[in-house]
Amino acid sequence: MTALTDPGELPEILRDLAVEAAGRAGRHALGKLHGPLEVDTKSSGSDFVTQVDRECEQLIVETILGERPDDEILGEEGTDRPGGSGVRWLIDPIDGTTNYVYGHPGWAVSVAAGIGDTIVAGAVADPMHAETFAAASGDGATCNGAIIRPTERTDLASSVLATGFGYEADRRTRQGEVLTDLLASVGNIRRVGAASTDLCWVACGRVDGYFEVGLSPWDYAAGALIGAEAGAVVSGLGRDEPSPSFVVAAGPRLHSALVTALLSVDAESRTSL
Ligand code: LIP
Predict the structure, then answer these.
(1) Protein residue with its CA nearest to atom 10 in ligand 1
(2) Which ligand 1 atom is nearest residue 92's CA?
(3) Fewest CB within 10 A of the end CB: N or C in the chain?
């Protein structure tokens, strides 16, 4: 007889399954990195997708359904599977596909699980750095099993911030204008190329903060939980929750100053579609 799962244990069980699924897909993607890639485009000429993205999504779906056949799954590359368990998975099989296509580090496999609308578990596997970030709600965040924490930086003027740009040229132009207006107020900028990696790097203190507009939920779902569980503040801009409208993440002593600076340059309305 299968022991009944204590509902309190479910986030940790989902986290461990997310780690297994992300790790399996990450190993597959790494193995195919230097092989022939079939590169297509989606929303614009710079929005790449490869056969490996699709293969990784299939591996993740197989891994999840092998353990939890009644879960709902939504994936960037087309998976949209209903379920009856109340658990819903959000998958980005290769976040930062441009990095993957060009052989740059920073691409990652992002797998998040929610109970209802609340994300309770997530894993982000970054095979080129041999790092797996993971979190379950209420159980903290780790990188390769070690507890991670954001920086305690307080001054925006010396902060290192990550950000990203969309695939639509007009929006990218406006994002660049907002960034230009911010640059004198911050210490430095990094454009890693994958939201899930950016959020995990806030969580472990590799950057002090991150902001971006126009993401899809599968880009940020796992990384946002990992950041929050590590002790960072992850929000929208003037909203408590991150959303495709805006994602802001920073250490607890920097977040408010970053939000104030973004609001002062009207970052959200200037970069909305
Ligand atoms: C990417 C995001 C990144 C953003 C890129 C792209 P994708 O997702 O993770 O933050 O700046 O433009 O949207 O498309 O590689 O899964």
Answers:
(1) 195
(2) 16
(3) N
Q: Percentage of the chain with pLDDT > 70?
A: 97
109 CA from centroid of ligand 1 (Å): 12
The CA-CA-CA angle for residues 78, 66, 72, to 5°, reads: 45
> 77 CB less than 6 Å from ligand 1?
no
**Tell me, what DSSP letter sits at residue 69?**
T
What are the φ and ψ backbone dihedral angles of 109, each rounded to 5 degrees?
-100, 125
Burial 161-198 (b: 16+ CB within 10 A, else e): bbbbbbbbeebbebbeebbebbeebbeeeeebbbbbbb
Atom 3 in ligand 1: residue holding the nearest Cα: 194
| Residue 208 clears pLDDT 70, i.e. is over it | yes
CA gap 86, 42 in Å, rounded: 31
Tokens of 187: 């210490």
What would the pLDDT profile of 217-229 be if each residue is shown by its tens digit? 999 999 999 999 9
Per-residue pLDDT at 6: 62
DSSP-based three-state secondary structure for 145: coil
Residues 6+ apart with CB under 8 A from 252: 150, 152, 231, 232, 233
Radius of gyration for the alpha carbons in the chain, expressed in angstroms and rounded: 18
C-alpha 182: how far from its chain's center? Answer: 23
Ligand 1 in reach of 99 Cβ (< 6 A):
no
